[in-house]
User: Fold this.
Amino acid sequence: MAEPKKASRRKTRAKSTAARRNGKSKVEAALNNLEAQPAGTATPIGEAATPRRRRSRKLPAGLETVAIDMAGDGSIDRSTADGASTPEAPPPADVPLEALHQQFITEVNELIARLRQIQPAYNPPPFAPEGLTGVLGQAANIVPPEVQATLFDKARKFISEDMFDADTWRGLWYMVSSSVSMQTSVIQRRLTGEYETDEWGFDREYMEAVRPFFEFLYKTYWRVSLSGVENVPEEGRALLVANHSGQLPFDGSMLGMGILLEHPAQRLVRTLYATWFPTLPFISDLFVKLGQALATEDNGARLLEQDQLVAVFPEGYKGVGKLYKDRYKLARFGRGGFVKMALRSRAPIIPVSIVGAEETYISLAKSDFMAKLTGMPYFPISPTFPWLGLLGFVPLPTKWYIDIGEPIPTDQFPARSEQNLMLVQQMTEQVRNIVQNMILQRLSQRRSIFFG
Amino acid sequence: MTDKRVILVDGVCGYWGRRVAERLLMQDDVHVIGLDAEPPEEEIKDLDFIQADIRNPLLVELFREEQVDTICHLAFKESVRVSETTFDLNVMGTMKVFGAAAEAGVRKVIYMSSTAVYGAEPGNSAFLREEHPLNGKNGYGYVRDLVETEGFCSGFRGQAPDVILTVLRFAHIIGPKCDTPMTRFLREETAPLLMGFDPMMQVIHEDDVVAAIVHAVNRDAPGTFNIAADGPLPLMKIVGLAGKVPIPVLHPLAYFAVSLIGPSIAPLDLNYLRYPVVGDVRRMREELAFTPQYTAEEALREFAAQSRLRQYLPEESALAFDEQRLRDTIERRKRARELARQQAGPLAAPRRRARRTKEVVSPLDDLMFEPDMSADVPVMETPGDDAGENGHG
Assistant:
């Protein structure tokens, strides 16, 4: 008798998998098998199996009732459960789970007995039903029933809808393989030198790759609010002059990001950086690839002659390495090199104030000894640096304001006025005062360091 | 011989001396004298060869007797280590040649130098002008010699104001035939680089080097000029285009190894792999009016294809199979013709036609184009050109 049973199971495999997909229990699948047996034997069992099937279907329904019952609204649910279930098994209010458990075991035992009547050689599989239900019951008791129910529901949905769908796996495979092949092709292309840079080393592809990080800093982390972007010309040369702060020169990147994101022409800002950075691995590489240049008068003048938008931070190390107590007090504006640059190439000077960057790191003191030891131009001591190591580099999420002021024209001066030292000094001081006033104006409106 | 300009090329047995002499011999308005300590390995046709050492005090008499008009001083020995013998030849030899030239009333002296004299420093501007101080002291022996000689050159300008001194500072020279530090660096399978550093670099094709020297012979341009191909490229891109596998090395480790073993283990001086040395070539374009034929990428592509094909085929024929090179060549000739038209103006066409019957020029060796010399160098003809001209004529 074992042979035909196996055959029938094979025949109805499709049906049973369909049943499993609908989230029905194994017991029910077995019952379906019995139903699908040859017509001669099917009639009595079909009659017998129908009420049992209905009852076994009640099992999850019973569980649900219990779950809702535990939630505190017992009577209504119990009544609906009573109305739906067979009269022999009304789930008692006190120990519903225990009762259900017992009921289930007796039902399964009855079922096995009936099966043995038809098929004397039938042996129940070793994992069912007492041992398995026992284990399941113990495990189930750990998790609260309402959670159990939702988990069960979720698992059922997940398994039935997505995991058995071949398209899910196909889609996953396409996604993984296409992204891998794209990245390897990019790496391969870069290794064989097939990419474009301009004469300064600016690499657009590289910039697009690191851009999301800076966009995150700009939009989410520091929530930069940029004003006066209309003062930056759509095309042609201009020199942005900003205050420098914040220990690490993030303000340069944020100014560049702001104009790239919010200026209608999406102009690239060429920031001039200090002489220390070319000695650093990776940083020097990054700066050059992002289109920045070393702060020399030659570089600045050449960039301006090429009608680029150049940004300078004339305070230099004195500004960026400011102590917290000196915040927003502008340091000396260099030796006026930026004014000479602007006069030489007749580029307008656009003052920029950056507020919020000062508080990203709280520098309490500077250590000359450590600066000498590490070769850094300054060595800040902050509540987190250098005590927390790399964690000390994490900046505080302050709220930033970047204000771009009105351009100061330089084309009204005669030729070679960059050699007029008085004029250079005067203009340097003028720009410094404008930037200082812009900072103070913004500070007078700012209520909170972190929320603006 | 009396009506011809006498050009003396010293170091004529060296690669550059030979190339320049061969190129100059194609011009029919000059008489070329070759000078070297030993006769050339391969006979140079029509060359008036004189065997002598450049440090010989009798050079003054030789220059005066031969009525030398221009000296191409190309005798230079390249050595990685600082050595007294090369210093003697490179620096003392130059001083003696220049001194003799001033004494004998030579009109013009041309000296071949390198942009390496600027020295790779963190404070270098992205484009170094010719006035930039020469800091390349700590480099290789030959860089030191060049800096030393260049220092002498600037003094020489003051001492002998009548002599036109043209110093050509070439970027890293690459090419299928020449042997320079850069070609040695790029011919190896792998390219050790400093991790996290990717300086901008310039290269120049060997044909353009010869063309620039010949250009300086034919045009009086006193001063110093950076000579480099269009487009400074990041080192990683150069290595990639040359088909090398980059091996990044931590820079403190690399510096330590060099200090331990010596500079010869590094293919190039480490600072040149770390900081940019890029010459500003505006003066080359404006004052010298010289335009290199090869862009940096073309030169590198040709170089890479050649070193790849050389494994399978003999040197000369290998390049004929490189399709990309032919494409680049067509592009390059087109550019040269465009430039010729722009510079020569409407009068160029009839003059060019008249010459065509007179001269036969080896097609591959004469790719270079000298804008002010359009009367002497025939521009290669194409069917399109011919049709246009015949139609008008």
Notes: The CA atoms of residues 129 and 284 of chain A lie 70 Å apart. Chain A touches chain B at residues 190-195, 197, 199-201, 203, 275-276, 278-285, 288-289, 293-294, 296, 298-299, 302 (CB under 8 Å).
